[in-house]
Design a protein that fits this description.
The chain starts with a helix and ends in a 17-residue tail after the last strand. By secondary structure, the chain is mainly alpha-helical. The chain is built from 5 helices and 2 strands.
Length: 125
C-alpha cells in the first residue's frame, strides 16, 4: 500500500534495510539535500554573488577558475563556487584579524582595472 508525502518516503526507506539506523541516516541526508540553499543569510548570499560577478569581470585568475568550473558545471553553479571562495577569504580575514594576502586559491591576483580615485571632475572645473 503506497503512502504519500514525507512519511511515505520514510516508510519506503525503512523497508529497504533490515537495520533501521541505516535507513534513518539515509533519510536525514536526503531530507537535508532538498533545503541546502535555504541555509545562511540571504543578504550575504546576494552580496557575495554580486562580488563574484565583478571579480570574474576584473580579475583574470578568478575568471580562469570560473571558466574551468563552467566547462564542467552550469554557469550559475560556477558563479556560486567563486562566491564561496570569496566568502572563505573574507571569513579568514575577519577571524584571523590579518590583512588580505592578495591571492585566490594560491595564485596572486593581478588587477586589470586601474583604480581611479579620487575621480576627476569631467569637464575640468
Amino acid at each position: 500500500m503506497p503512502v504519500a508525502g514525507r512519511r511515505g518516503k520514510l516508510c519506503r526507506a525503512l523497508s529497504r534495510w533490515p537495520d533501521s539506523s541505516a535507513a534513518k541516516v539515509w533519510f536525514c541526508v536526503e531530507a537535508r539535500r532538498q533545503q541546502r540553499s535555504k541555509y545562511g543569510n540571504k543578504c550575504l548570499k546576494i552580496a557575495f554573488h554580486h562580488a563574484a560577478v565583478r571579480a570574474i569581470q576584473y580579475f583574470p585568475e578568478i575568471q580562469r577558475f570560473y571558466r574551468n568550473m563552467a566547462l564542467r558545471k552550469p554557469k550559475a553553479v560556477a558563479r556560486a563556487l567563486v562566491a564561496k571562495e570569496l566568502a572563505r577569504a573574507v571569513y579568514f580575514v575577519l577571524t584571523r584579524q590579518e590583512a588580505f594576502n592578495g591571492t585566490f586559491k594560491g595564485q596572486p591576483l593581478n588587477r586589470t582595472k586601474q583604480p581611479r580615485w579620487p575621480r576627476l571632475a569631467n569637464p575640468p572645473v
